[in-house]
Amino acid sequence: MDRQLKNLVTGLCLYCCVAVLVLTGCASGHCRGSQHTNEKHVYVFKPDGSKQCSNIKGATVEAMATELSAVQIYSEENRYDGKLHPQVCDFPTGRVNVYEIGVSDLPAAEKLGFKLLDPQKK
Description:
Mean pLDDT: 82
Distance between the termini: 59 Å
Structural class: alpha+beta
Largest sheet: 4 strands, antiparallel
Strand order of the largest sheet: 2-3-1-4
Number of helices: 3
Number of strands: 4
Shape: extended
């Protein structure tokens, strides 16, 4: 009986060690499919078009990303722009779609109406 208990404890410890190693590796981004390059990245944004008091939602990050089809996108999110907006129906909500792109793609994105996000606000 003691030998079975010892084997069980050893197996459980080994399982926990492997689990910790796998989870630690994933936390560093290696298994999330992140793409690493030496190029510096910047963030660009464009309002999603959503309006207050409206049932019409703004453009999703996925839909707006099609405008940047010639640009490598490293990350994307929809978020509040951080500015004060009047609380009036049919006024913009202040939601923007933000994309992380390579600095070399910035001119192309700006031609499409995207603006450079202040590095302090990312």
